Amino acid sequence: MPLRDVVSNRFRSLFVLLTSVLVGAGSPAKAADQLIVRLDGFSLPIDIGQLEAWSRDPSVRSNDLGVWFELLDPRSREDLRRLMRTPILEERDLALQLIQSWAGRQVLEEMGALLSTDQSGSGVLLVNTLRGLLQRPEPVTPLSLLRAVPAPRLTLEVDEVLALAQQWRRQVERQGQALRQLRQLPLPLTPTPNPALAPAHLPAGAVPTPLVLQLAVTHRPDPLMIELWEAVAPRRDAYVLVMPGLGSSGDQLAWLARGLAERGYPVLVINDPSSDDDVVRQLLDGQRPPPGAETLPARLADVEAVLKAEQDGQLPPLGSSAVLLGHSLGGLAALMAGGARPVAGLEHRCKRAMKGIPLNNLSWLLQCQLPEVPLPEVGSGDGRDPVAAVVSFNGFGSLLWPGRGLNRLNGTPLLMVGGGLDLVTPPVGEQLELFLQHHNPRSRLVMVEGGSHFSVVRLGEGNPALLQLGQELVGVEPRQVQELLLNLTADFLGSLDRSAALLPSQQRLQGTVRAYVLDRAAARRWHRRLDG
Question: pLDDT digits over 231-271, tens only?
């Protein structure tokens, strides 16, 4: 599915509403409850009562607003009527938890700049109004929300709404243009995996399964649950420490752990009990708010504890060094556990980034929560295994590490992976520009055409309904993407040996899925094309 088609419907109803409002604004409002539409310096009053009556029965011609709506084509008229009366938050308990979370509050408070009252603190007023509506049995619709705000007049800043939509459009167009420029790089095609790094042969009927270990840690009340995937011979010298993303678990990355173990790498998977799929189930049931960046300190402490436990013999001996691998927030944890910390001035950068709802980069919501999160000091490495490399799938950090903020990782090889359909952590800002800060010659950037933020998540039976995602979120052919990423990750790990050849820049084909592997020189050429 083309990226433009992914988001084309997202703003259609909004544009219909705005167009209809402008057409119907010629008649002055007759009631006290007004919606003032501001556009290009003009203020246009709308009678909310007339809008509500028309939405119930559009055939009533005595309604002045309804007469103007007759000028619209039938489809737009019906879309507007349906939009006004359709419940916007079906799952009440879930919605309450979302708006009470840090990220939810930021989004709704920023909406106060789009839909405001004559009072100050319109965003907080909207939050409180929506919370009150959700505690009633009646459905919450756009009209009921307009009616419930305790103010005689509301103002809709159409210019701001259109700017937000244009911002989203520019992001989509930029990603599409970036992929077109990437395709033009002269990279050789490698259609098959490296046979030297193929999985080891297993006895007939043998299926690798993880061993569940418990590790007592001082920063959690219960022992840390760790899955150990023992390596199949011949065994490599390094082991891999895997950290799932927010709301995910080791089960969803078992394909990766199993595949690396079959290629000779012992794998430890850390499950964070404060942000795993059980927490997602509780969120969907309205029992708790969504997890966020507040889970990061415990994740970092988990990594330190596991690395030290292996060194001290509390865990089975696995290798002389560790590779830190994570997806999304797990990727951010891997970068931080490898030594990176936010560059000074994050709060100032976040004030600029959060002026408006960050639809073009949802990871900013997590990054801008970090000033409120007490991060531990960077570990010295004493008493724990050294870090051989960092692998980040769909990671992020553009606000944390501007300029040369990843310099502390220059001695550690880095593999950064992004997807062309990723609308959560856009690949240009969150992977390419971060990768260009890194100077280790063994580091590589991988961009998967058709990959999304959730391509690496393998879903099985019994997963939360939240993860019933369409192609625009899952991406194309996720199983092929996963197989491709497994082979590329194994190739990258194999290149860490100083006697091994560097992983070359190339195109890699897995079935119908194509990935682009870039060293720093190739990444710079891609970036210059974008700037040109």
Answer: 987 788 899 999 999 878 888 899 999 999 999 999 999 98
Q: In Å, what is the CA distance from 72 to each residue of 40, 53, 58, 85? A: 22, 17, 12, 18
The domains found in the chain, sorted by start residue, are: 1-86+158-184 (no CATH), 91-151 (no CATH), 209-371+386-531 (3.40.50.1820)
Looking at 328-462, which runs of residues are DSSP E strands?
A: 387-393, 414-419, 444-448
Count Cβ atoms below 10 Å from residue 240 Cβ, excluding itself. 27
Count the neighbouring beta carbons within 10 Å of the beta carbon of residue 514: 21
CB atoms within 10 A of CB 81: 18
Identify whether 223 is preceded by a cis peptide bond (ω within 30 of 0).
no
- How many residues are given for the chain? 532
User: How many CB atoms are located within 10 Å of the residue 217 CB?
Assistant: 17
Q: Under the phi-then-psi rule, with left for phi > 0, alpha for psi from -120 to 50, and beta for the rest, what region is 42?
A: beta
Reported as a pLDDT band with limits 50, 70 and 90, residue 383 is low
Q: Which of 354, 386, 422 is nearest to 172 (CA)?
A: 422
Segment 301-312, tens digit of pLDDT: 999 999 999 999
| SS3 category, 390 | strand
Q: Do the strands 224-229 and 267-270 form a parallel or antiparallel pair, or are they unpaired?
A: antiparallel
Strands (E), 198-256: 211-215, 224-229, 238-243
CB-side exposure of 364: number of CA atoms within 13 Å? 22
DSSP-assigned states of every residue in 290-359: PP-GGGHHHHHHHHHHHHHHHHHTSS----SEEEEEEETHHHHHHHHHTT--PPTTHHHHHHHHTSS--T
* 322, 361 Cβ separation under 8 angstroms: no
Q: Please report, as a single letter, which amino acid is at residue 497.
A: D
Q: Which of 172, 173, 180 is nearest to 516 (CA)?
A: 180
pTM of the model: 0.79
**Does residue 45 have a pLDDT over 70?**
yes
Structure token digits, residue 132: 């009150």
| Rounded Cα gap, residues 219 and 221, in angstroms | 7
Separation of first and last alpha carbons in the chain: 27
The pair of structure tokens assigned to 125 is 């007023």
